[in-house]
Amino acid sequence: MRQIWVITKRELSTFFNSLMAYIMLIAFLGFSGFFTWISGNDVFFMGQASMKPFFSVAYWTLFFFIPALTMRMLAEEKRSGTIEMLITKPVSDWQIIMGKFLSILILIGISLVLTLPYYITIWNIGPIDHGAVWTGYLGLLLMSASYISIGLFTSSITNNQIVAFLLALLIGVFFHIIFDVLANSTDGLVAQLFNYLSLSSHYSSVTRGVVDSRDLIYFGSLIVMGLIATETALTKRNITR
């Protein structure tokens, strides 16, 4: 665990020593703040104390931001050769992956904590469903963790950051949009299968204030599969070196 935390702190330091973390935080807060308070579909337009506008925009904003954060994690280290130095240290591939995974998840967590004033302000405007708010934040964290694992995988199979970014977006589009569209355009068992594969259906379920074990299993499976695929890609590369 100590090695994982060392790598996590190293990656967080890299984020905050550059403009990456600050740009991400400012852009995320800017987008979420605009659509929560100012846009035509904001809190005041809805006429009720609800965090739905925020969760809707955060759902899309993080979808694009996370691949931008993960694209350099392994691809850049492979291109520059620093991954070779890291691998020679007394750490396993899994510890490297988990350290990088946690660093991005913590950064996302920081960005979500900075939006708590939205929650407090809306709470002061009128009665709010607190359970739905907290499960909404949980849904964003679970979704983020899923896309981080996918982004790390795409970053592990290429030396090019742009390719890693585009591959992560391409894979994410299936879970974010396509499976949901296919579920709505089919019926029977096929529709049920696509609906289960759709990340949006599970995210919507969680943000309604109900945490179902099926949703937790779905997100947990997606996260684990992405991380295992990343480890497999790194291990294969080490063997063929």
Can you describe this structure?
The protein is mainly α and 241 residues long. The chain has one domain. It has helices at 2-17, 20-37, 43-46, 52-70, 75-80, 82-88, 93-113, 116-125, 130-156, 161-185, 188-197, 199-207, 213-240. The longest helix has 28 residues, at 213-240. The mean pLDDT is 86.
Q: What is the topological layout?
A:
Elements: H1 2-17, H2 20-37, H3 43-46, H4 52-70, H5 75-80, H6 82-88, H7 93-113, H8 116-125, H9 130-156, H10 161-185, H11 188-197, H12 199-207, H13 213-240
In total, the number of strands is 0
In terms of per-residue confidence, which ranges show pLDDT below 50 for 5 or more consecutive residues? Answer: none
Number of helices: 13
Give the class from helix and strand content and strand pairing: mainly alpha
Straight-line distance between termini: 27 Å
Estimated radius of gyration? 19 Å
- Name the average pLDDT: 86
Domain module count = 1
Order of helices and strands: HHHHHHHHHHHHH
Helix content: over 70%
Share of β-strand residues: under 5%
Basic shape: globular
Largest sheet: none
